[in-house]
Amino acid sequence: MQKFCGIDHPIAGVVLASRVHRSGATVRRADFGRLGLEFEIAVRIKSDVPITRGPCTAEAIAPHIDGVGAAIELVDDRSADYSNLDVRSLVADNSWNGGIVLSDFVAKWPDLEAVLGRATTDGAPIGEGHGRDILGHPFNSAAWLATQLNSRGVGLKAGQVVMTGAVMKTVFPEAAAGYRFELEGIGSVEVSVR
Predict the structure, then answer these.
(1) pLDDT tens-digit map of 138-168
(2) What is the pLDDT of residues 54-90, one digit of tens each?
(3) Element housing 58 (H / E)
């Protein structure tokens, strides 16, 4: 996704509670400037992550994670020109977050680096990727976020959900369809676009 957006570092935004949906939700394209779907691995924070001075690592954050799930981020890029993105504007626009759709979280999961995620629309394959496509391992994303928050004197809190990043390029629905994202050994999440 960083390459797709032409940036050389992760970015973050917030997910408002009113924009959190369960698997099976229906969203309307008309409610977005241009709706995009990002197929991701979500993690749930089990316990407050201590604020530290140095960078947080995947190994340090792992004990603070008690759930992993399949997720679809709803993004609204407002028909952005990807050849000329202004990262500051992207961040100021809350990293285009328009909501998330979550599967159930599982307490036991396979090796996330190797886990394969497959996306389909109305049953037809549209893309796939592995956990390693997210900064090498999804926990690296959560550690990066913890480090950024720590630099502001804030930490990740128990119960928060971290969207770790997409395993493939964003998909932009052009018509009504059903989308499914399945993570091997973890579960699946679905959203209907109308």
Answers:
(1) 999 999 999 999 999 999 999 999 999 999 9
(2) 999 999 999 999 999 999 999 997 666 667 666 666 6
(3) helix 58-61
> What is the fold of 2-10+20-193?
Fumarylacetoacetate hydrolase; domain 2 (3.90.850)
Say if pTM beats, i.e. exceeds, 0.85: yes
C-alpha 97/C-alpha 100 separation (Å) is 8
Query: Which run of H or of E encompasses 27?
Result: strand 25-27
3-state secondary structure string across 60-101: HHHHHEEEEEEEEEEEECCCCCHHHCCHHHHHHCHHHEEEEE
Domain ranges of the chain: 2-10+20-193
CA distance 148 to 134: 17
